[in-house]
Specification:
By secondary structure, this protein is mostly helical. It has a domain at 37-113. The protein is rod-shaped. The chain contains 3 helices and no strands.
Length: 140
Amino acid sequence: MIPALIAGAAAVLAASGVFRSRRKTNRAESTVDARTDTKAALTDASNLILELEPRVIIANDADLRQRFADASKAYSEVLIEADKARTGHEVADLRLLIAKSRWRLDVIEAELDGVEPPPQPFSRNVEGTAWDSTRGTGPR
């Protein structure tokens, strides 16, 4: 009876170890996927900077030029942070920084196009509820 209990306990412990290992693997794969999506968002923002730069120069507006320089600097800082992000939470925080950086560029583009600027992205809710790092007015 006791050997059966020991064997049963060992089986339960082994199964929980496999489950924990599988969870870590899934979490690592999710982080890799999120980093891939994040790199794509960084590329999009980079392309927008390259696209906007000549338009900002042609607009010949000192305030617009300064805001563009600030937005470009913010993007550069995001690039530095991108190299440091390792965990899922760090990638999530990075995606929020990207959304805010991209929003600054989108506002400049909207001004150049003479259209209404997009709403500002909201901050991450760290109280455990769902959040969205894209533009919006708050959790849905």
